[in-house]
Amino acid sequence: xxxxxxxxxxxNGEDLVSFINFLCDSNATSYPIAxxxxxSNAALKELVAEIITADGNWQFQDTNIANLSEGTITLIASxxxxxxxxxxxxxxxxxxxxVNGNWRVLKHLDPREFKDVAIEEYFAATGLPTYYxxxxxxxxxxxxxxxxxxxxxxxxxxRFKEDIDIFTTSDTTQEPGxxxxxxxxxxxxxxxxxxxxxxxxxxxxxxxxxxxMKKTLIDIYVNRNKDDRPQFTTSPIDNYK
Length: 241
Prior knowledge:
about 30% helix, 5-stranded antiparallel beta sheet, alpha+beta, disordered C terminus, about 20% strand, about 240 residues
């Protein structure tokens, strides 16, 4: 099961919509596709929110404004680079808390302005960051922060926009942006709101299934990050010390 919906009849049996109908004893009339889409998207966003906070280094707060969330992390003196999960998040704004506790919005640095000198050489000294750049899954601060000028504890704040490809009512090839082993988790989560109304005897079972599958999904990302790179963790770059 990978696709959201394979045909208009919702009876193919190899897609999420058909599985939702199976779990709910529903059809396109009793559980309209628009409702399935809404509940499936809500499920996917909930899963992504749990994934991006899996290792606990970043603290996130949903601002409920245009799907933006804010994350904070403790800075490390003389360290310029801080990684995030670009699979689900897009950086919108970055702020630094100065030594007096005031938040200062950083300007985005354009590398094209540094034609005659390396950026690392121009910002060789540490201090209060005034610029940032994003390369792949890493945020770079210029200059690198130092305790004399910056509040290190939860001193970096990043406003993120959810970068999730959500479902629409016309999707026939779209897949959830999570491992295929857990695609059915979206169907279970999207089935619960319907069952709360019409099949209440199934709710406890499906909630238990969701809880168990969430745990194994988070384990996939935590273990993957240990093998690959830490998610929302930091690693020093000597050039910025």
